[in-house]
Amino acid sequence: MAKSPLQLTVSLQVERSQSIGDDTALNGIALICKQRSPMPGIYVRSTGPYGDWTPNQYCPRGRLDAFQLRVEPPQGLGDDTAANNIRFHCSDGHTLEGKGLSWGQYGAWSPTCPLGICGLQTKIEGKQGAGDDTALNDVKFICCNRLMEEEEEEDQKMEPKDYY
């Protein structure tokens, strides 16, 4: 099995139900380097304006390699939230259920990233003022590729004087 250049944990930024107020649900996603990184800590974070961060979750013995996004369809005159939660598949067979909300349904699993997930791109709606806020509307995850793995192996061979 091919290794991933990054072992990642994931955390979600979630606004809990506002009961009477405007709900936004899932606001952000952070991928955090767990090990084997030249710069440990936050790797990629894309956030909206509301909510708190959930505890980190990670694959016990594998890497994140696919996902499902839970999305609530448009509510017409009701309160829209868009993305509510996310599930990740791990290369070791585990499934990580995000700590988001339960409105809406999960879509289909994404294609599998053979070398794991290395990054993300999100679509986040900004504050709407008196309008209906939704925050995170969509996400694309970036697959690691063999070139990244080869570059990491080359970096490990370099002497410290070769770093700029």
From TrEMBL:
Signal sequence segment: none
InterPro entries (alphabetical): VOMI, VOMI_sf
SUPFAM superfamilies: Vitelline membrane outer protein-I (VMO-I)
Protein name: Vitelline membrane outer layer protein 1 homolog
